[in-house]
Amino acid sequence: MKKLFLLFSLVLAPASVAMASGGGEPIDTSGLTGSFLGIMAVLLFIAAYSLVIFEEQLHLRKSKPVLAAAGIIWVFVAITFAGMGNNHAAEVAIRHNLLEYAELFLFLLVAMTYINAMDERNVFQALRSWLVTRGFSLRAVFWVTGALSFVISPIADNLTTALLMGAVAMAVGGTDKKFVSLACINIVIAANAGGAFSPFGDITTLMVWQKGIVQFTEFFAIFVPSLVNWLIPAAFMNFAIAKATPQPSKDQYVMKLGAKRIMLLFLCTISTAVSFHNFLHLPPATGMMLGLGYLGFFSYYLKKREHRNYDIDDNPLAHQTYHAKPDPFDLFRKVARAEWDTLLFFYGVILCVGGLSQFGYLSMVSTFLYHDMGATFANVMVGFLSAIVDNIPVMFAVLTMSPEMSHGQWLLVTLTAGVGGSLLSIGSAAGVALMGAARGVYTFNAHLKWSPVICLGYAASIICHLFINSKVM
User: Fold this and answer.
1) Taking all residues of the chain, what is their mean pLDDT, rounded to a whole number?
2) What stretches in the chain show pLDDT beneath 50?
């Protein structure tokens, strides 16, 4: 997936006095940045993230190195604090990080379960089938897949959206490698841009929302900058696409029983999470878990109804849809199909960054970037760093630093962390996934050729935000 920021910033930033934050009494960590165990923790994180970068080449799941690094780093933290005469400071600090991870984990688990349920009900396959059979021109497909990526990713995640729209582009483009490559680049940019203005569109926006820094409706203030971020590079790439119209495919998929109701339940679940946060002041994850209860009851009804329909001999529609007696719709199978590698990767990242903060490194970076260089420069740099390093540890580091800055600056860092990953193909989960799906066609170098116009869109989105949201800057 991604790469290395913090690490180099941590080593290069000037030394300073930091206070460890963990929910208990502050611990004076001055001098710990230069301690042996502190330096070992940084080197361990660099080594673990280097393995994450080469995941595709090593065939080593990205969660494994960061899980190991997280455990060892907290051993270092515990030994260090014990040596300072406080045996419980590390426990208090890690419980704070575990609580943050638990909320994120439960929220994402429910969202992934719903996505898996809709996938099993052929929701995404039916959408792809409809698009492929329309007989659109290549340019029309380019714009339709981009627009749908932009509007779907705020609800689903950018990874699922990119894979769905990428499948459409590859099905329509066929052997036209140039079109498929351009369409994939466009989809990655649109999916990342669409996810930037919604709490549900990206892990980084979700973290900012759950922290209570930006309220649900306030994210829409960066809708126009996000749109600009996609439209500018798309307009340039449009002229590189041939005006040909390929033969429409005859691929057909029909949504299964209950598909539309599961979509409705997902929207109800999102509404529940927002209501829990806004009106009851409860964590959004608790609302999502209630939504999982909605799906649980509906799955029981669906299992009974589906088998009853099939067992009726005079119901040819059921036999035509399933061909064989369907497996029971099992909610826990959908839970089991969640992206566990990704969920465990988040655990490793959050605890690694949390451990480094106990050694005072994040305070060091915060002083260097936000105090010495200024919030706007720092937040713009976050976007560039997100193209090299995964935006999740970068944003979690910013949230852990909690620098003093205006509401407009928090919106800016939310925007840049979300769309900055589009600058390189390896800068986002959407890009990495499509490189695997369109192997040999959509490549790092193919994306890199268009990085200048993508960077132009990135700059334009920042200028747009600074202009239209100037009152909150």
Assistant:
1) 82
2) 1-24, 313-314
Nearest of 265, 252, 245 to residue 137 by alpha carbon: 245
Percent of the chain with pLDDT strictly greater than 90: 30
> DSSP labels for 383-412?
HHHHTTS-HHHHHHHHHHH-----HHHHHH
Q: How many residues are there in the chain?
A: 473
Give the list of residues 6+ apart from residue 422 with CB closer than 8 angstroms, or none. Answer: 188, 189, 192, 193, 229, 387, 428, 431, 454, 457, 458
Rounded to whole angstroms, the Cα distance separating 61 from 161 reads: 22
Task: Identify the residue whose tokens are 């608790």.
Answer: 286
The DSSP bridge partners found for residue 20 are: 27
For residue 453, give Cα distances in angstroms to 230, 232, 236, 424. Answer: 10, 8, 7, 12
- Indicate the residue type of 257: L
Report the alpha-carbon distance of residue 181 to residue 170 in Å, rounded: 9
Contacts by 57-66, CB closer than 8 A, 24 or more apart: 61/341, 62/1, 62/341, 62/345, 63/340, 63/341, 63/342, 63/344, 63/345, 63/347, 63/348, 65/348, 66/345, 66/347, 66/348, 66/349, 66/352
- The pTM of the full predicted model, rounded to 2 decimals, is 0.75
Compute the distance between CA of residue 250 and CA of residue 259 in angstroms, rounded to an integer: 22
Characterize the bridge pairing of strands 19-20 and 27-28: antiparallel
pLDDT at 108: 80
CA proximity to 431, closest of 142, 63, 184, 143:
184
Separation between Cα atoms, residue 196 and residue 386, nearest integer Å: 13
Angstrom distance (rounded) from CA 296 to CA 274: 20
Q: Are 431 and 6 in contact (CB under 8 A)?
A: no
Q: What is the pLDDT of residues 339-367, one digit of tens each?
A: 788 788 888 888 988 888 888 887 777 77
Question: Quick check: 345 and 432 in contact, CB under 8 A?
Answer: no
Tokens 């001055």 belong to residue: 30
Report domain extents, the chain: 123-253+404-473
Three-class secondary structure of residue 20 per DSSP:
strand
Which two structure tokens, joined as six digits, stand for 342? 């990704």
How far is residue 165's CA from residue 168's CA, in Å, rounded to a whole number?
5
Angstrom CA distances, 306 to 260, 263, 315, 454, stand at: 15, 18, 12, 48
Greatest pairwise CA separation for the chain in angstroms:
79
